Amino acid sequence: MQFQEAANKFNIVVFELEKIKTECDEYIEGGSQGEQSEQFIRFLHENPKINRVLEIGFNLGHSAATFLSASPEIKVISVDLGEHKYIHDCKKVIDKHFPGRHQLFIGDSTKLIPQLKGKIHPNFIFIDGGHFGDTPLQDIRNCLAISDNNTILCLDDTEYLYGWYDVVTALCTVLKSNEVSLESLRVHRINGAGWTYFKKTPQ
Description:
Largest sheet: 7 strands, mixed
CATH superfamily: Vaccinia Virus protein VP39
CATH topology: Rossmann fold
Helix content: 40-55%
CATH class: Alpha Beta
Order of helices and strands: HHEHEHEHEHEHEE
Number of strands: 7
Strand content: 15-25%
Oligomer: single chain
Number of helices: 7
Structural class: alpha/beta
Radius of gyration: 16 Å
CATH architecture: 3-Layer(aba) Sandwich
Shape: globular
Number of domains: 1
């Protein structure tokens, strides 16, 4: 699948997701920027072996739509607290456009991810869950625990000016403790958004 074809597919899906957003009477959390989604599609095209994605934080489904649009070979497992009613409507949109390729687990990622160890084998993990307190660090460590040496992890909201303090602190913690390979670190910034790719330190 070429980039433009994937981007067009993403735009079609996001149009429906955004319609849910505009009609919703709840507070809407977050949501990916279009430029960031384009960068993720390019990244997945540059890494065609990625076909099993785990994401923490489904929310409006923008990130899931991005990954699924990038390649028909990709399947996505999402973990979300499920605090908002609109999540279920967004899940229906994802299932309509990508039948059989998406699973949604509702619950606390800090408890669910350890339960999935040995049951799933993602080769790409996108972490965009809780942004406060110990949650970012727990999510990173739990995801490292289910990763192998080749798994690429991506932590969202790490831009040093506009990122979330506890998220950035968590990343610094695992770098300082050598849980994450410094050589694998790739930092991206675009229009105030920031995210960081990394791998676990080889065992």
